[in-house]
Specification:
- The chain is of the alpha+beta class and 195 residues long.
- The chain is 57% helix and 14% strand.
- The chain has eleven helices and six strands.
- Strand 2 (85-90) and strand 3 (93-98) form a beta hairpin.
- The longest helix has 17 residues, at 64-80.
- It is globular and about 45 Å long.
- The chain starts with a helix and ends with a helix.
- 15% of the residues are buried.
Length: 195
């Protein structure tokens, strides 16, 4: 049997004994199994703004040619499926958008009056459960400051000063859980009280 690098050795070891789910080795293995098109899709969704191939390549730390090929494969996948989302290109920048004609339907379904960009920022906070404002701005861009202000004004999130540092902790409010019919994560709530 031929051994190619540490990855094969790791797989052999993992077959012999179970790996702790929180182990750094487990996280590396899981992340490496995510395809480049899937990573690009996640980036386009979370950024919520058009990105160039160069910007995406920097984020995933892959060559631009690989990102270009993966993006074309992702776009072809969207074109073949009957889906509400579409990847649009404008002046060399790509974004994940609703297909034309669905905007009115979605606006009527939203329980609140928030822009799509603000909803994406709220979704990012909801996925992370608790996030530093500085980290959120790094993920969503400088427009997130306006989104955060709007979300605080509408009482969907709460902001508390970080004990050590200059940023703020952003967490979901009770109104968020009531509006979107999502139960709060009790373990997260307990850890927030400690920090």
């Amino acid at each position: 049997m031929q051994i190619i690098g540490n990855h094969v050795i790791f797989k052999q070891i993992s077959k012999q004994r179970p790996i702790n789910a929180n182990s750094p080795l487990k996280l590396v293995e899981e992340e490496s199994e995510i395809s480049l098109p899937a990573k690009l899709e996640a980036i386009l969704y979370l950024k919520g703004k058009p990105l160039s191939i160069f910007e995406m390549a920097e984020i995933v730390k892959e060559p631009e040619s690989s990102v270009d090929q993966a993006l074309m494969a992702l776009m072809a996948g969207y074109a073949q499926r009957d889906t509400a989302l579409d990847i649009q290109e404008k002046q060399g920048r790509y974004s994940l958008q609703l297909r034309s004609g669905l905007g009115g339907l979605v606006q009527n379904l939203l329980p609140v009056d928030l822009s799509v960009a603000t909803l994406r920022t709220l979704a990012t906070i909801a996925l992370k459960k608790r996030v530093l404002q500085s980290e959120l701005v790094e993920i969503r861009g400088s427009g997130a400051y306006d989104h955060i202000k709007e979300l605080i004004d509408q009482k969907f999130i709460e902001r508390k000063r970080q004990r050590e540092g200059r940023s703020y902790w952003l967490t979901l409010s009770e109104k968020f859980h009531q509006t979107f019919s999502v139960l709060p994560d009790v373990s997260t709530s307990e850890s927030q009280k400690v920090a």
